[in-house]
Amino acid sequence: MAARSRAPILAVTQGDAAGVGPEILVALAVSESSRYRLLLVAEEAALSQVSAAVSETAGVSFHYLTGAPSRDALDEQPPHVISVLDPVAEPRQVRFGRSGAADAAGALACLDAGIRLAQQNVVDALVTAPVSKASIATHHLPSFRGHTDYLAERCGLERYGREYLMAFLTSELQVALLTTHVPLVEAVRSVSTEALSAALECLHRHAGGRIAVAGLNPHAGEGGLLGGEEADLIRPAVEAGRTAGIDVAGPESADSVFSRARRGEFDWVLALFHDQGLIAVKTLAFGGSTNWTLGLPFLRTSVDHGTGFEIAGQGLADATPLRMVCETTCDLVSGRLPRRRA
Hints:
Layout: E1 9-13, H1 21-30, E2 37-41, H2 44-51, E3 61-64, H3 71-75, E4 81-85, H4 101-119, E5 125-128, H5 133-139, H6 147-154, E6 165-169, E7 174-177, H7 184-189, H8 193-206, E8 211-214, H9 229-243, E9 248-252, H10 257-263, E10 268-271, H11 274-285, E11 290-294, E12 300-302, H12 320-333
Parallel strand pairs: 1-2, 1-5, 2-4, 3-4, 5-12, 7-10, 8-9, 8-10
Antiparallel strand pairs: 6-7, 6-11, 11-12
């Protein structure tokens, strides 16, 4: 077995090349932390175009690999040299701000290469820059709805089977989602005792702590006056979870449960649909939260922002959120799970 690096190795994918992904990857490489080593999974064509827009690149050089690296080779790389794996390896002109078929294909190629690196334990974690869901769905995969479900499918997990969860970490609030990128009407229909039970087991197994399940209706149904899903679907899952040894409460009124968790009453809120959870997270810490996929056979994290097409390629993108994600990822690699309040 190869000796472990003095710092974890993070594979960071470019996302959509027409967005801010390549720019924040270059900026991240320039300010690389001593806590981790980087392997950028990106197109040379995209990185070379944005390098001029990123200030203070002196002292850092990019080493473009001719094939998939070994762990030993990455461990031996000098700190000031950033390895780059380009799975596309074709010259092209990137049109920043507008994603086309080539950009969507490059995003998928980099993501697939990053998945292989993580599955083969060449790297300690996979960190992803944002992709355009619409571009990938339009040009290549009509069923594509985002990183989380795509990663799960590539790892053999059942789509929407709740063997995995999208979760968000901030310094004050931790939220997991029962459903992710689906229409609201479909998300509501997906709330079931079985799905909630599986999600609670996943969250308990991979993160632990005290969990609050958000209600679906105003005031968590107000005793049935405002809806019966809490009594019929949610409460049975909560009671079954308690029987199984999970520290779970609910259903709790969604208009107050996030504030209660922030004050320390709960470690996690299990939200029932995307915006129910992410309005709270992004109001509190937009750009400062880490997207963590629970249930995968490897560690995957991501930033909480989008492709930023409107500012791409102009040297305006802020790499701070990506740096924060990498720091949080190092905590997760070392086994420091999200903070549990006393």
